[in-house]
Amino acid sequence: MTEDPSNSSGEPRQDAGGESRHPAGGERRRPAGGERRRPAGSVRHPAEHSSLAEPPAPPPAPPASPAPRHALSRRELLTSAARGTGLLGLGAAAGLLGGRASKAATRWQIDPNRCIQCGRCATECVLEVSAVKCVHSHGMCGYCKLCTGYFEPEPINLDEGAENQLCPTGAIKREFIEDPYYEYSINKDLCVACGKCVKGCNMFGNGSLYLQVCHDRCLNCNICAIASACPAQAFRQIPAPNPYLLRGKGAPGT
Ligand code: SF4
Ligand code: SF4
Ligand code: SF4
Question: Which in 14, 153, 226, 231 has the greatest CB count within 10 A?
Fold first, then answer.
């Protein structure tokens, strides 16, 4: 079963498999003919009728090498960004420039066994907020009271106080189950893919927290900006019908 670990509870869900076709790609059409129409009722210049009139000056030569379409689009994009259209627009447009393939047979994904939590998943994505999120395999989790993916290395207290949490955005929810067990869930809307919890979990826990590209957000750029920057070669393209590399038996949360 294809799971989508990008739902709001951090649990996987059925991958919709759909993707949007980007609106770019349409060519501007020249008006047919190429001749300008004379306004009705306008008067011709006498020279146009005279056989003695000087021949018209030749049209200016076309530029030797017109700028490539993509270079022009990128300049327009940067100009637009400079005018304040915002990083989200920049990111989305950059993804489009990257050439999102609407019928791509593959999707970018992170191999969690290769990821070293370098932090670039949070900073390199073309989207303003990364398409990468932390997911949690509840089947692998130890439900630890002292979760090293949740708590700062030396927490003041083992409670949910913000000062005790490792996550900079409070994206991990901690719930008491029964003594001494607690359940941890990810709010993907808050997760920025910094990888701190993943590092903490991998150092002292079972590695049940890990990063995945969420395909309800990812633009599936032809060249993934994070993959290009990843120092561990953890990104790869995998078949679109099964676009996650899940840890543990079944799926996260099972
Ligand atoms: S860039 Fe690579 S190593 Fe760094 S957090 Fe992302 S997947 Fe892991
Ligand atoms: S610590 Fe970082 S990777 Fe983990 S849930 Fe919080 S924002 Fe996401
Ligand atoms: S392909 Fe890579 S850079 Fe593009 S949106 Fe997806 S995660 Fe971000």
Answer: 226
Q: What is the pLDDT of the chain when averaged over all its residues?
A: 72
Q: How remote is the C-alpha of 17 from its chain's centroid? A: 16
- The residues, any chain, with a CB within 8 Å of residue 128's CB and separated by 6 or more, are 86, 87, 88, 90, 91
Number of domains making up the chain: 1
d(CA 3, CA 43): 72
74 falls within a domain = yes
Query: Which domain covers residue 92, as residue numbers?
Result: 70-99
Q: For residues 136 and 193, what is the distance between their CA atoms, to the nearest angstrom?
A: 13
84 within domain boundaries? yes
What whole-number distance in Å separates Cα of residue 191 and Cα of residue 187?
6
Please give the model's pTM, rounded to 2 decimal places: 0.65
For the record, the structure tokens of 11 come out as 């649990």
Q: What is the largest CA-CA distance in the chain?
A: 106
* Residue percentage of the chain with pLDDT more than 70: 57
Q: Which atom of ligand 2 is nearest to the CA of 194?
A: 2
Q: Among 109, 113, 117, say which to mutate for ligand 1: greatest number of ligand atoms within 8 Å of CB.
A: 117
Q: What is the pLDDT of residues 58-82, one digit of tens each?
A: 444 443 333 333 333 433 333 333 3
Q: Is residue 89 part of a domain?
A: yes
Closest CA to 11 of 196, 246, 200: 246
